[in-house]
Design a protein that fits this description.
The chain is an alpha/beta fold. 28% of the residues lie in helices and 23% in strands. It is built from 13 helices and 24 strands. The strands form 6 sheets. The protein has a 10-stranded mixed sheet, with helices on both faces. The longest helix has 17 residues. It is globular and about 75 Å long.
């Protein structure tokens, strides 16, 4: 059967996973992250951390009022003007998180130098980063007095934000990360977006997480399992030699294991698309160090099962190196996850009369549907209709990709190691689409393992000197 014929065939063998539940304060659960926060408060409220979110500002002296305005807005209410079916009115930071947000006092308002403006308007992004970092010396001296630094970048500086080989956002986050200072970058988009509730939800959740809070975690997960996301950044050193930096993110569903580490690897091969594949020794070294990160946070214990995700296939050397890195007491499941596929999924209603044919349903295929193609390959719809989350009509499902993507496409999973049915594998990937705290909506298309590791890899491409150290992912949100 051709791909086109398969695409239009009924999927008799498909199954549907329930929407993953999230855990909030007092053991309360909800499938909608924003609704759960409103009803119960964040998960870490019961832990007493953080007790508040204290802010510091870094902005041009004549624009400090812009930062003050957005902080004031975060503490008030905001109505929903877009996507009303799955967004909720924003009730204010203290109401959502049950702790105060403390605006910066005069000693925590740091002015950017006139040199910053000159360099920015010349389009010198690298120079702007250096000048901003020079200001950070004063900020560091007050580090114990604030939790998150808000950095305002005026719109007239935009010529220095993004150009070939340079991304100001990534470069700035990478250079500040070694200082262990969480930052929230504010640009003109924050002020111009029409739906203020969406802006406030996105910023407030991110600020709470950056201050050390856990907004929510997965309600149903196996504490003996862990996840690793691998992404790569290929670059050249000053001596002309080419290196692949492997960015590994160790993820613990308990909400505590969000750590990155990057390693330079020299033994690798590339395919025609430039994708790197590591030697046996290199992949074993990368994953052994990743395992050590997990053990450091779990009293030396190794997980019973570990899932390793990357966007390219695993070679024979990589498979063997991964298995040997974890030993025989840990089950290892190696999964290639591909976002773009040639498949679609159309939901059909049964015919109203025996002689009639099935017709397209009013809503797309259910999110969480999965279809095994072979013993080693499966399609998983991480986009699609979701029931029980509609903010306006409880009985109607939500398809948040509408109207831009009227028919949801699945992601593809290929298993190179591991045993068991596809239900468990798909369930773990599916649940991880709801673990991105730098997000103000229901879910992401890809799991947090790859979203974060790829984000880290993009940062490393432009700032190679942050390798071989461990970073909390909050520094790169």
């Amino acid at each position: 059967m051709t791909m086109t014929a398969q695409r239009h065939a009924q999927l008799a063998a498909h199954s549907i996973l329930p929407e993953p539940a999230l855990l909030f304060a007092k053991g309360k659960t909800d499938t909608h992250p924003l609704r759960g926060l409103i009803a119960s408060g964040p998960y870490s409220l019961d832990l007493g951390l953080p007790a508040h979110v204290r802010l510091a500002y870094l902005a041009p002296q004549n624009r400090m009022n812009m930062v003050e305005a957005i902080v004031a807005e975060l503490q008030g209410r905001a109505k929903v003007s877009e996507a009303r079916n799955y967004y909720f009115e924003y009730p204010g930071f203290k109401y959502v998180f049950r702790i105060p947000m403390i605006p910066a006092n005069d000693t925590l308002k740091f002015s950017q130098s006139d040199e910053c403006a000159k360099l920015a308007q010349l389009g010198d992004g690298e120079g702007l980063v250096r000048s901003l970092l020079h200001t950070m010396a004063s900020v560091r001296s007050s580090r114990s007095s604030f939790d998150v630094l808000l950095i305002y970048l005026p719109p007239e500086w935009q010529t220095s934000f993004l150009y070939e080989g340079f991304n100001l956002h990534d470069k700035l986050k990478a250079r500040i990360a070694p200082l262990r200072i969480p930052v929230q970058i504010i640009n003109e988009t924050v002020f111009t977006r029409t739906c203020r509730a969406q802006v406030m939800w996105g910023m407030s959740v991110a600020l709470y997480a950056k201050a050390g809070g856990i907004p929510w975690k997965l309600a149903n997960f196996n504490k003996d399992e862990a996840y690793i996301g691998l992404s790569y950044a290929i670059r050249k050193h000053s001596d002309g030699a080419e290196y692949t930096t492997c960015c590994s993110q160790v993820f613990d569903p308990d909400g505590t294991g969000f750590e990155f580490v990057a390693y330079d690897t020299r033994e690798f091969e590339t395919d025609r698309k430039g994708n790197p594949y590591l030697s046996y020794q290199e992949i074993q070294s990368v994953l052994s160090r990743s395992l050590l990160l997990y053990q450091n946070g779990h009293y030396g214990h190794a997980p019973r099962k570990i899932f390793v995700h990357k966007s390219t296939h695993f070679t024979a050397e990589e498979i063997q190196g991964a298995l040997d890195a974890f030993g025989t007491k840990t089950e290892v499941e190696l999964i290639q996850i591909v976002r773009d596929t040639d498949w679609y999924g159309l939901k059909l209603d049964p015919p109203k009369e025996p002689e009639k044919k099935s017709a397209p349903a009013s809503y797309p295929l259910d999110r969480g549907s999965y279809l095994p193609i072979t013993e080693t390959e499966c399609l998983l719809w991480t986009q699609g209709s979701v029931s029980g989350v509609n903010a306006q009509s409880a009985n109607q499902p939500v398809f948040k990709e509408a109207p831009f993507k009227p028919i949801p496409k699945p992601i593809s999973l290929r298993r190179f190691s591991g045993e068991g049915n596809w239900h468990d594998t798909c369930s773990s990937v599916y649940a991880l689409t709801k673990c991105d705290w730098n997000n103000n909506t229901l879910y992401k298309t890809m799991p947090a393992t790859l979203v974060y590791s790829q984000r880290f890899a993009n940062v490393v491409k432009g700032t190679p000197d942050i390798i071989n150290d461990v970073y909390d992912y909050r520094f790169f949100m």
